[in-house]
Design goal:
about 280 residues, alpha/beta, eight-stranded mixed sheet, two-stranded antiparallel ribbon, 10 helices, globular
Length: about 280
């Protein structure tokens, strides 16, 4: 394999890539992308490029994508106003149809873009090899679910074929209906089920910052908990970090909050000593 032809010139050094390809060759890496990575054309193209590189290097990546901003755009177009309970969108019958449409469109776009780069990807949606069974979150939220079961077999079979599963964060309830799942939570549930070596959550922030707003490159779950308690970690970062802590305490070796706005952040996180965000370990 000629790494020089695969790794972008502004990516990690070939020596480092070689070292980490060996390290991760039999491991599973779950990558969740959302936020501006899916909206900004340059970031989107770079993300696709990075996933294609990971696939061509022979590593097993599993992608879960969000689509909050896409969903909002579609709801606005349909003049459907969102109501929220504790920051969570109430999802009625009408809303879930639009949520599903928005996510499936995005899923197809990601899939085609990766395949256009001569890499191999395969869609995983509720209508196509659904892997997530859910329990409804709260009655008043409507069609919003929490994963209770993940079908590992479907994923393992796709990965064996050297393809990247591209997973929509939707699941099916006992009532046979489709429910929306928070993409971080869906990615973590999958990572726990397959004991992945890494769960990478791509976001629009640098990572976890200390009191002086400096990036912390690595913390353990105890420190992360303390930072939530003393409010160093606040707002929307709290549920994200709680998801990370839960994952590392349930079979995932390490979770990384990756800055998706950085050049080739995925490649630097996986294939370099320095990384590209905050690594959270048990």
């Amino acid at each position: 394999m000629n790494l020089k032809n695969i790794v972008p010139k502004d990516g990690p050094s070939i020596d480092e890539v070689e070292k980490y390809v060996k390290k991760y060759s039999n491991e599973l890496i779950v990558i969740k992308c959302g936020g501006s990575v899916l909206l900004d054309e340059n970031l989107f193209n770079q993300f696709i490029e990075n996933i294609a590189v990971i696939n061509k290097l022979g590593l097993s990546a599993i992608v879960v994508h969000g689509g909050g901003k896409n969903i909002k755009k579609k709801l606005d177009q349909n003049k459907i106003e969102s109501k929220f309970v504790d920051g969570l969108r109430i999802t009625d019958e009408k809303t879930i149809k639009i949520v599903e449409e928005a996510l499936l469109e995005l899923n197809t776009e990601i899939l085609n873009s990766i395949n256009d780069k001569e890499a191999n990807a395969q869609s995983v949606t509720p209508k196509n090899g659904n892997i997530i069974k859910i329990v409804p979150e709260k009655k008043e939220l409507g069609f919003v679910g929490t994963p209770k079961e993940v079908n590992k077999e479907v994923l393992v079979n796709i990965v064996r074929k050297k393809k990247v599963p591209i997973i929509v964060p939707l699941g099916i309830g006992d009532d046979g209906k489709i429910y929306n799942i928070n993409a971080d939570v869906a990615a973590a549930a999958i990572a726990k089920e397959i004991n992945s070596r890494r769960l990478l959550l791509m976001t629009d922030v640098e990572g976890v910052l200390d009191k002086d707003k400096k990036l912390i490159s690595e913390i353990n779950s105890e420190t992360a908990n303390n930072m939530i308690n003393d409010q160093s970690i606040s707002g929307g970062m709290i549920p994200k970090i709680n998801t990370c802590i839960d994952a590392v305490n349930n079979g995932v070796t390490g979770v990384v909050i990756v800055d998706g706005r950085r050049q080739n952040s995925l490649l630097f996180e996986i294939f370099s000593d320095k990384g590209a965000g905050t690594l959270i370990r048990k």
